[in-house]
């Protein structure tokens, strides 16, 4: 096996964590530039345009989350089989997961396109932005298959421990998106300006290039993945295992996405100005927690490979160190955001004073508690890497539906705080959720799961198919 894979189960933990997480963090930063670039250029069209994009994002994220759990399942299985040095099962898992992901992408793309207007009306979007938001949403849903495909490629490579090539691919496509956004939004020469929907056209175009490039790399066989046509014969035993891991991960991500949509529902009741404030603050939040998400993904890979290799003490040490690093990094980021809140907001909305002043309050309310998000995400990464996607799902449900949304509703609608009541639920919910996550981690049962130990009947089915693929 390539050195990049085996080295993750030995040597200094901090070195492994940093070498794996930094490329993931940079790739995630660049990936988030799609949304930030959209917000930057759409912001030049005014507050209503920003609100139209902002109100659409949680619904897009919801559809992505519904299918995204299967990429988590694929990455976890690939990581544990890589740690166990079982390359045949790595190939088999990859083929089966790709089939499931593309089927899910096609179904969700169609569903999202047909229901865009109804979904926006359901959450109470005002008529002044409904048209732009609907068009932006439909265009975005049309390209879900490209987004899912690239996410699947990233997940497979991450499970293998190879994170540099996805960084190179996303670097090129983000730069291209930076050029295409103003071209499609405002138009130039023979290309007409499409306004808000132009941002979605630019994103779909560049994401399709990213997916095709990634698959060319994957199918080359250079990184140990060797596809055969027989490998895409449905293996219902393996699919059942992928679904068992993927469905809780999908529910977890959907819970967060649906929670975002419900928060938009609360926010929309206070008018378009508050929607724009929430949109800017949420985009900055999604950007500044990227280091935590990168560490979470790296932790999942490291924990998965070490559990697959049977090295449980090292898996536990990885999780603890990752949580400490994430807490420290996000605390520093939060302090910087608190101190420089106004310049950050003005970068996205330079001329709308009402949006700027409101978004500064929102950002300062959240910023000093970012460290808690970091620690929680790192521990959740350990749970995913060990195959405990059900526990990650339960933590997400408790965080959103027991803590955050009920508090947001009570503080905003039944006190005199108004929108500020919504802003304050972020630090409160983060504190409570981190406490629950830490308690479960310290309990210790999460590290005892090893998903490469199959049921006998599933093993025989998988091996029969692998034999027919010609890999033995």
From TrEMBL:
<keyword id="KW-0813">Transport</keyword>
<feature type="transmembrane region" description="Helical">
    <location>
        <begin position="12"/>
        <end position="30"/>
    </location>
</feature>
<feature type="transmembrane region" description="Helical">
    <location>
        <begin position="100"/>
        <end position="123"/>
    </location>
</feature>
<keyword id="KW-0472">Membrane</keyword>
<protein>
    <submittedName>
        <fullName>MATE family efflux transporter</fullName>
    </submittedName>
</protein>
<dbReference type="InterPro" id="IPR052031">
    <property type="entry name" value="Membrane_Transporter-Flippase"/>
</dbReference>
<feature type="transmembrane region" description="Helical">
    <location>
        <begin position="387"/>
        <end position="411"/>
    </location>
</feature>
<feature type="transmembrane region" description="Helical">
    <location>
        <begin position="324"/>
        <end position="349"/>
    </location>
</feature>
<feature type="transmembrane region" description="Helical">
    <location>
        <begin position="135"/>
        <end position="153"/>
    </location>
</feature>
<feature type="transmembrane region" description="Helical">
    <location>
        <begin position="284"/>
        <end position="303"/>
    </location>
</feature>
<feature type="transmembrane region" description="Helical">
    <location>
        <begin position="423"/>
        <end position="442"/>
    </location>
</feature>
<keyword id="KW-1133">Transmembrane helix</keyword>
<feature type="transmembrane region" description="Helical">
    <location>
        <begin position="355"/>
        <end position="375"/>
    </location>
</feature>
<dbReference type="GO" id="GO:0042910">
    <property type="term" value="F:xenobiotic transmembrane transporter activity"/>
</dbReference>
<keyword id="KW-0812">Transmembrane</keyword>
<dbReference type="GO" id="GO:0005886">
    <property type="term" value="C:plasma membrane"/>
</dbReference>
<feature type="transmembrane region" description="Helical">
    <location>
        <begin position="165"/>
        <end position="186"/>
    </location>
</feature>
<dbReference type="InterPro" id="IPR048279">
    <property type="entry name" value="MdtK-like"/>
</dbReference>
<keyword id="KW-1003">Cell membrane</keyword>
<dbReference type="GO" id="GO:0015297">
    <property type="term" value="F:antiporter activity"/>
</dbReference>
<feature type="transmembrane region" description="Helical">
    <location>
        <begin position="50"/>
        <end position="79"/>
    </location>
</feature>
<dbReference type="Pfam" id="PF01554">
    <property type="entry name" value="MatE"/>
</dbReference>
<feature type="transmembrane region" description="Helical">
    <location>
        <begin position="257"/>
        <end position="278"/>
    </location>
</feature>
<feature type="transmembrane region" description="Helical">
    <location>
        <begin position="198"/>
        <end position="219"/>
    </location>
</feature>
<dbReference type="InterPro" id="IPR002528">
    <property type="entry name" value="MATE_fam"/>
</dbReference>
